[in-house]
Amino acid sequence: MQIREFAEMTGVSVRTLHYYDEIGLLKPSAVDVQNGYREYNANCLARMQEILFYRELDFPLKDIAAILAAPDYDKQAALHAQKHLLTLKKERLERLIAALDDAMKGETISMNVFDKHELDAQRSAYAQEAKEKWGSTDAYREHEQKTKGYSAETWDSVTDGMDALMAEFASCRKNGNAPDSAAAQTLVTQWQDYITAHFYTCTKEILAGLGEMYAADERFRDNIDRHGAGTAMFMCEAIRAYCG
After folding, report:
1. pTM
2. What are phi and psi of 150, to 5 degrees?
3. Average pLDDT over residues 112-129
4. SS3 label, residue 39
5. Which of 140, 155, 150 lies closest to 26, judged by CA?
6. In sequence order, which residues have a C-beta less than 8 Å from that of residue 97 and are 6 or more positions away?
7. Going by C-beta distance under 8 Å and a sequence separation of 6 or more, which residues neighbour residue 16?
8. In angstroms, rounded to a whole number, what is the distance separating the alpha carbons of residues 204 and 108?
9. pLDDT (tens digit per residue) in 126-183
10. What pLDDT does 164 receive?
11. Facing residues of 38 across strands?
12. How would you classify the pairing of strands 38-39 and 30-31?
């Protein structure tokens, strides 16, 4: 769907979607090279839902970006924690509504109904835990430092470079090379160097986590497999061989 339709569906302005694209938080599934029109698919919608859950809990955008980009991001664990926090928020709102009903009847209400200490405390605890796990790593700090000045044009150039390398992986597979072949291993080295040059120092440990994510996470798998079915798994297996 085009950007305006996606904006209406998600309740987010077109301007906000442009900004999310610019900072790398939510990239469109495709961009028309001739007119620049952005297209969004079901994977984009799923990612937007995750973003909106975090925004509902008042997470800053840079923290959301760090959490969602982490190689070891556990979506199910995050959803369980978010549900717990939103349940606390719902219960507090229900108490406030009940207190309003009592006030409208002329009854005296307790000031304790305005207390949100439990919600704030648990939200802060979760935010701190998430930051410590996903947002306070050296890789994240380096990523933030390297990309903070990226313009939309720079992001497009970096993305194009990654797409070009993915296409080379697809060609390598199509030409009959095994994941542990010299050709595939050369591409893995280039991939690791590219991440290091444009985002953060990509150690073998980080690279191994990324490789597993490419095959396991549907969003990444679908994006990589645009270059040819099976490319994501080929990258994953090539990275496994490289990382030993």
Report:
1. 0.51
2. -65, 130
3. 66
4. strand
5. 155
6. none
7. 7
8. 63
9. 666 665 555 556 666 776 677 777 776 777 788 888 889 999 999 999 999 999 999 9
10. 92
11. 31
12. antiparallel
